[in-house]
Design a protein that fits this description.
mainly beta, Porin, 19-stranded mixed sheet, 50% strand
Length: 397
């Protein structure tokens, strides 16, 4: 059984957020103990800031929320932070209902999505992160968990990471590495099975000499979670996620002698590449007793986003789009349109070493047979300047 904060939080949401009808009619799931189940990662699972900008974040990531896009975010500072200690939390939660095809988070073929909807499955997605940066060093944790349940079954999958990083090369290069842990926990009336796997990850963010320009790249190794404990059932051979390579660029446009801008603008573009998974099938379809091949080929997800300070030092709006490739055989890729806002609230200081600015954030992500709305999230206000490089940024005068 998983004993992690993500699992505990998702279990609470599972028990308290939806009233479940215990007498609902459901069909028996197919148990194929040779199956390799690939976890869906097509939609952007992150916090409001990065969802609003089309899922971009490889060169923009700061603190805990940035870890979903690049491990190097652990030591990456927002431009105005001059304190020795920087804290970067992040939290996002949403309920998912496949009923009537309303939210197909896995982008399954239409017939498989309809079967899943008919079987009374419900879901919840929780993204949580915490990061602590001391001068040029950073330590962070981030996890994305998905819970699926119906009256007779419950499945929780958590993909979490622990990273350590620092700043080198004249404070222009953020480097980080760490481990990702993949956990899965399935419970039925007949018993339970728990799976666990560990894999490495690396990332960097480079601040170019040109003010307001940054590049980033990250690599997450494929992870295979195998059964570690169980009682009466063995629903699959393994739970897997593929190798992922991401690269991104971000830049800021400001008024100059030759160009007058009404508001400062920030732009970002990422490319996310997922490798094939050997002999894998869709985890969500497997829950419904179906076998849908997933990850038979390389897939690409281009992403672009922009942000504007419509009320200087108080309010930002965001917009973006990304392509979700078809990982499932028989499905088609889909275009997502995203948007969001960030409202600066107030500054708080503590212990002489903490100096942060709290912000209210929201986001929306819409595509064919999918929608996600994060109306209110709390985060840390960050400068709109990309590639921050300033003397005293790490608490040193």
């Amino acid at each position: 059984m998983l004993r992690t904060p993500l699992r505990l939080a998702l279990t609470w949401a599972l028990c308290c957020s939806v009233a479940r009808a215990e007498d609902a009619a459901v069909s028996d799931a197919v148990v194929d103990d040779s199956a390799r189940l690939e976890v869906s990662r097509g939609i952007v699972k992150s916090t409001a800031e990065f969802i609003g900008m089309g899922g971009t974040g490889v060169a923009l990531g700061v603190g805990g929320p940035g870890l979903f896009h690049n491990p190097a975010a652990t030591s990456h500072r927002k431009a105005e932070n001059r304190s020795e200690l920087a804290i970067g939390p992040g939290l996002g939660f949403s309920l998912v209902s496949p009923r009537g095809g309303g939210n197909d988070v896995a982008n399954l073929p239409a017939d498989a999505a309809n079967v899943l909807a008919e079987q009374d499955w419900q879901g919840a997605i929780l993204n949580a992160a915490m990061n602590v940066a001391w001068r040029r060093l950073g330590v962070g944790w981030a996890g994305s968990g998905t819970a699926w349940w119906r009256p007779d079954q419950r499945l929780i999958v958590a993909d979490s990471q622990f990273v350590v990083g620092g700043v080198v090369a004249g404070d222009r290069l953020n480097l980080a590495g760490g481990l990702r842990r993949l956990d899965a926990d399935l419970e039925t009336a007949d018993g339970y099975a728990a799976y666990r796997g560990v894999a490495p990850q690396l990332g960097f963010i480079y601040h170019a000499p040109r003010e307001g320009l940054a590049f980033g790249a990250a690599w997450w190794s494929a992870a295979t979670a195998r059964e570690t404990t169980g009682d009466g059932i063995r629903p699959a051979d393994a739970i897997v996620v593929p190798h992922r390579l991401s690269a991104g660029i971000a830049w800021t446009s400001e008024s100059t002698d030759d160009l007058e801008l009404a508001v400062p603008m920030r732009y970002a573009a990422d490319l996310v590449v997922d490798a094939p998974s050997r002999d894998a099938v869709a985890l969500e379809a497997h829950m419904a007793g179906l076998s849908v091949e997933r990850g038979t080929r390389w897939t690409l997800s281009p992403r672009v986003g922009a942000e504007a300070d419509v009320w200087p030092e108080r309010l930002r709006i965001r917009a973006g789009t990304y392509w979700e490739p078809a990982r499932n055989v028989g499905a088609s890729g889909r275009v997502h349109v995203t948007g969001g806002y960030e409202l600066k609230l107030f500054r708080f200081k503590a212990l002489g070493i903490i100096d942060e600015v709290l912000a209210l954030e929201g986001s929306v992500d819409v595509a064919s047979r999918y929608s996600s709305l994060g109306v209110i999230n709390l985060g840390m206000w960050r400068s709109g300047v990309t590639g921050a490089h300033a003397e005293g940024l790490y608490g040193e005068e």
